[in-house]
Amino acid sequence: MAEKPKLDPKDYQGGKAFGQLMEDREAALEAINKDFLQDDKYKEVDDIEEKLQTYKNKFLEFDLDTSGDIDKMGLKQMLEKLGQPKTHLELMKIIKEVDTTGSGTISYQEFLWMMLGGKSSILRLILFFENAAKDADKPHGIAPKRTLSSLP
Fold this sequence. Notes:
Radius of gyration: 20 Å
Keywords: Calcium, Metal-binding, Repeat
Membrane topology: Peripheral membrane protein
Subcellular location: Cell projection, Ruffle membrane
Mean pLDDT: 78
Organism: Mytilus galloprovincialis
Structural class: mainly alpha
Helix content: 40-55%
Number of helices: 6
Domain EF-hand: 50-85, 86-121
């Protein structure tokens, strides 16, 4: 059996070790998704499989240090990308609201509890509105010519 490649944090080239790390992370998140699919509390959630896949992709995108948790900087980048920049104090408040283990980060399981659970949180609302904004019909192409009389 081949030895598993080890990831050197100082080696920014990635290669096999980085690819293996990403596969392992994705497999671990899939296992958590399966647990949520089998949990009776979430049976009534509409389109749960699709939502879990979306949440997994979002989580992987913002787990900047590939630790398996979203830290303050990952959360900051997520909220800035959504057009909702927050101060460091606000970020710490959001993390404290979601973090059940006291680690100071948001694990994938905590992320799913927040997104699928009944408790309303700031981050959940922001992500919800981001998806609603994507669904809104936006005009495409060049705006029609206007005359002075058509201006408000």
